[in-house]
Write a sequence for this structure.
DNA sequence: AAGTTTATTGACTCGTCAATCAACAAAAAG
DNA sequence: CTTTTTGTTGATTGACGAGTCAATAAACTT
């Protein structure tokens, strides 16, 4: 009983299922059948809409990164002009419960691995890193002047590191704790002992 | 022409080959045959000495972590008693060219992924993290007192994050740059603007 | 109504790979 | 010098999984 206009619905379901399955498995070793099953369709249909497994992975990556981008953009728009507030907004968005869920974090780690072999995945991650860096820099320049590049590099790496450790630890993710770890660095760096 | 006492030699060759192959491939998707070939033997022999592929991976992990542990221990022994010097020693050891080679960094990232699925791998990583934390804490307590736990958490995550970014970027690894990123954080945190 | 496009799947192909086995060789033990 | 232990491999097994295909059906077009 084929309804028309299924394509976007199916694709969205597959993207979501891909992220969940990668997060569950904790690796890219998930079969197209697993993903398709979770999305409620046959593996053949998954291949019909995305040409290949790799394309599914890339679509899932784009989805996660675009969610993240939207979250940051929104937080920045609501943060006004004060550089400290903007930096805090970026950090809170980075660890907002939306991005900082088990499956998302597990998937994210595996996208780093994917970027080792798949050029397009690497490109996507680079774009995200550059955007983050440029966001951080514009506010840091106003606050720490010439030390901005070094601070931005450390902040970027620190965010990734917190994600990495979250993927390893057991128990539910803790946004607040993650933000606290990064804020420890940031407040000291800005010279205001909280 | 079988020489006797091959076991340790073969095992060492396999461990080394495992690390290289994982680093090259940028994923755990390496075949036992590839590893065995690089180590100069048949895949059957690899299975003979290690019971399974997973055992090879774990042996490789233990090897990398024990190299790292030895490096840190050595650096600490040579660092005297001054807490600042000891912290610097840990950082420099963490990014010493011995650990901070392409293959090792690539393999290390993939061991994080392995830890998602293989309990023993997770255990090994936890041990390493606990040891690092305890090393950092003992010196940080003397320097930043009650803030030691927070600073140690951030430092640990930062080190992992720098590794992670190293795995993604192209071009040869740069120990000095990596140390500089972390030192930016540490010197500010210790209150001495370099 | 006939033809075309879209949705959907079960069955199949084809390759890959971990793990096992049978067999052979050389050294050590008796 | 025979028996056991250690080292070694080519060939094989058995499973699994990505991607293809033919077939079926509902909807849209003319």
């Amino acid at each position: 009983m084929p309804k028309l206009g299924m394509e976007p619905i199916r694709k969205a379901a597959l993207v979501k299922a891909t992220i969940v399955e990668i997060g569950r498995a904790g690796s890219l070793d998930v079969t197209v059948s697993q993903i398709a099953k979770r999305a409620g369709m046959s593996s053949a249909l998954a291949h019909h809409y995305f040409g290949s497994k790799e394309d599914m992975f890339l679509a899932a990556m784009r989805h996660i990164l675009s969610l993240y981008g939207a979250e940051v953009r929104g937080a920045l728009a609501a943060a006004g002009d004060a550089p400290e507030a903007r930096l805090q907004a970026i950090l809170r968005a980075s660890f907002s419960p939306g991005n900082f869920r088990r499956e998302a974090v597990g998937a994210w780690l595996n996208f780093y691995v994917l970027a080792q072999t798949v050029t397009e995945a690497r490109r996507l991650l680079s774009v995200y890193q550059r955007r983050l860096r440029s966001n951080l820099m514009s506010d840091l320049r106003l606050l720490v002047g010439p030390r901005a590049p070094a601070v931005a590099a450390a902040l970027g790496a620190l965010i990734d590191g917190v994600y990495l450790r979250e993927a390893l630890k057991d128990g539910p993710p803790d946004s607040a704790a993650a933000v606290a770890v990064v804020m420890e660095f940031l407040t000291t760096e800005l010279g205001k002992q909280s």
